[in-house]
Amino acid sequence: MAETRAKVAELDPVWARVMREAEEAVANEPLLGGLVHQSVLHHPTIERALAYRISLKLASGEMSEQILREIADEAYKTDPELALAARADIVAIWERDPACHRFLQPLLFFKGFQAVQSYRVANWLYRQGRQDLAFFLQMRCSEVFGVDIHPAARIGRGIMIDHAHSIVIGETAVVGDNVSMLHSVTLGGTGKEEEDRHPKIGDGVLIGAGAKVLGNIRIGRCSRIAAGSVVLEEVPDCKTVAGVPARIVGEAGCAQPSISMDHLITGGT
Fold first, then answer.
1. Rounded to two decimals, what is the model's pTM?
2. Quick one: 109 and 172 in the same domain?
3. Structural domain containing residue 226
């Protein structure tokens, strides 16, 4: 057993750490034993655990847990990028969220992480041409988590959505790698046109709570959007914008604002 665990830790350090923390959680709180065993310890890989967790959360009288689990298992088997992105998301949350002390927490408890992984499966379905099923997952994700991400949107790795209530990401939105956003963020369109109409968020961007980014505009890499801002124009790289409508108020303040999570304008720009 020790040899097997050592091999898993070498090949998949994120999953090995999740497993270790799951065992510690059961030892510390036996009442969570059933939850932790079913969600983590019964599964040989992170892919299987993710499929189980997503299917459990999104199941309803309209679509059974078993069917959803088969769909998710197929997605993870067909596209390894889904689970690689999930691993990056777990590490990102652990690094950036002071409320996250273990890799285990996002998988079990954080709806932002669970919603993004549900989106990733829906996006896989959408790319496979199974759009109605993708829309069903989008609907259930919105109903269960309060997060509405169109399955056609493109979202990178290392995403942290803190608290995650009332997140809206539109159909033609693009979100780069290592982006952090807080609750009530909208990446929306500005009209009824069907063409490319949603924001393009660069790598390393930090988006504050309640911010609205509207239209087919580019938000430059490593920039910051202050809480409550309404962004209607493009933002250059490494700048801070704030206000309604938003305007440039200074530099980003650091090389990686999405990692530092510094929202303060005074002293940070």
1. 0.93
2. no
3. 153-268
